[in-house]
Amino acid sequence: MVAMDSDLQTPRIVHPTARIVTGRVVRLLEGYPREVRVGQPVLVVVLAAAGVAGLLVALVRTVLSAGSGGARRRFKDLKKGPEYLVTPVRLRDTAGRLCEVELHGHLPQSALHPADHVQVTLRRQRDPDLPPKIERIVNLTTGQLLTPRTATIWSHLGPPLLLQAALGALLLAAVAACSALT
């Protein structure tokens, strides 16, 4: 009969509290998508301002018979928000503790490997149950400085919609200024 040892210690994974952590990469876990939340007030303001410019553009198209424009995204699609990749990373810090942090966005495939000696700059997330997010990685093994990038609300809305919103806001300001003068 084999005796079972109930005193086996499994390594405890901690969320580091320091802003900068130095250690070795133990493991890159499987990534998963997470959605950026888009605030409805921001979206309504941008779409309303873009709508003013859109009316002007539609009027010009009608007069010039320029044909139909590009496909427009629905409010529901814009409100959903962009997704970005979240990769949990396990590090062994200089004190020997196993730490979990999150990498948001993409890095070049050859940028980070298990056993790499790294120094990471971390930021707490709004949800206290989530591990801190990596803002910057200095890979001391390769000498690379890595900054992961994620999608933002502004990149999700896109330059055409934002330019249209800016034009609409300028048109509204011009109409308001003209009506104030009369």
What secondary-structure arrangement, pairings included, does this model have?
Blueprint: E1 13-14, E2 20-28, E3 32-35, H1 40-64, H2 75-80, E4 83-93, E5 98-104, E6 117-123, E7 133-139, E8 144-146, H3 153-157, H4 159-181
Parallel strand pairs: 1-5
Antiparallel strand pairs: 2-4, 2-6, 3-4, 4-5, 6-7, 7-8
Helix pairs in contact: 1-4
Which terms would index this structure?
182 residues, alpha+beta, eight-stranded mixed β-sheet, 4 helices
Can you give a write-up of this model?
- Helix 1 packs across helix 4.
- Strands 1, 2, 3, 4, 5, 6, 7 and 8 form an 8-stranded mixed beta sheet that branches.
- A hairpin with a 4-residue loop joins strand 7 and strand 8.
- It is elongated, with a radius of gyration of 25 Å.
- The protein contains 4 helices and 8 strands, in the order βββααβββββαα.
- The model has no long low-confidence stretch (mean pLDDT 81).
- It has 182 residues and is an alpha+beta fold.
